[in-house]
């Protein structure tokens, strides 16, 4: 499928406005860690989007390419300084294959959850492994399912409530699915947007990695290599081609 999915022109136009993902204190540590694992080699970003991480990574001298399903997001990337120079293939990150090999493939900001079946998530890991050169790494950043906050029998958790935005997650704990519902309020007008996701625990991602021939090399509670604990709300995990010896 090569349409824009849920990330159409309206979403792409405001995607970079979310300060919590675009702030220098967020982007900087992410780019530093990605550059560390790139090790001077070529890098591939699954779901490169508007270039939030790819562009500053390229400015550090890293050779970056991307795969992206949404043409609208890529169009936003192309309008930015340096965005026209980054090669991007339009396609699904679980199935699209680029013939080159990379030292690092990465997938940031919960995007693995956009694949709403276990089969698709496993396919994404396998596709990442296909793109790795010997010794290469696959890195994801994803939230820890907040089910400890969910009262028994309840399905709704609010994650944001301001004068201009309400956000709630609606969970289906039987099938490991959830939908994020957003309502934006501006000048008395309301705009609603919902996106489906599939969550998985770190142990399940480790099993997906094993099926793809990858083994865990590191897991942290954030981009600064903070310890991953029972209180962490996300993890940055890195796997390497099994038996690479590095």
Automatic annotation (TrEMBL):
Matches recorded under Pfam families: Methyltransf_25 (PF13649)
Biological process (GO), any one: methylation
GO molecular function term, any single one: methyltransferase activity
Gene3D superfamilies, A to Z: Vaccinia Virus protein VP39 (3.40.50.150)
Domain Methyltransferase positions: 43-136
Keywords in alphabetical order: Methyltransferase, Transferase
UniProt-recorded name of the protein: Methyltransferase domain-containing protein
Organism, scientific name: Rhizobium aethiopicum
């Amino acid at each position: 499928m090569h349409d824009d999915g849920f990330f159409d022109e309206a979403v792409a136009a405001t995607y970079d406005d979310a300060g919590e993902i675009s702030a220098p204190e967020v982007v900087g540590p992410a780019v530093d860690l990605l550059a560390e694992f790139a090790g001077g080699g070529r890098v591939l970003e699954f779901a490169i989007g508007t270039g939030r991480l790819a562009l500053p990574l390229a400015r550090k001298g890293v050779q970056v390419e991307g795969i992206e399903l949404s043409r609208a997001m890529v169009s936003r990337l192309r309008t930015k300084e340096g965005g026209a120079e980054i090669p991007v293939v339009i396609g699904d990150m679980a199935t699209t294959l680029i013939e080159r090999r990379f030292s690092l493939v990465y997938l940031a900001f919960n995007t693995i959850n956009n694949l709403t079946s276990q089969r698709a998530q496993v396919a994404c890991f396998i596709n990442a492994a296909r793109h790795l050169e010997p010794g290469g790494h696959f890195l994801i950043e994803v939230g820890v399912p907040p089910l400890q906050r969910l009262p028994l029998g309840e399905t709704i958790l609010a994650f944001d409530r301001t004068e201009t935005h309400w956000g709630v997650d609606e969970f289906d704990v039987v099938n490991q699915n959830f939908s994020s519902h957003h309502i934006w309020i501006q000048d008395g007008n309301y705009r609603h947007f919902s996106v489906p996701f599939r969550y998985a625990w770190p142990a399940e991602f480790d099993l997906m990695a094993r099926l793809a021939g990858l083994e865990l090399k590191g897991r942290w509670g954030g981009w600064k290599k903070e310890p991953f604990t029972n209180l962490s709300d996300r993890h940055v995990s890195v796997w390497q081609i099994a038996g690479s010896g590095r």
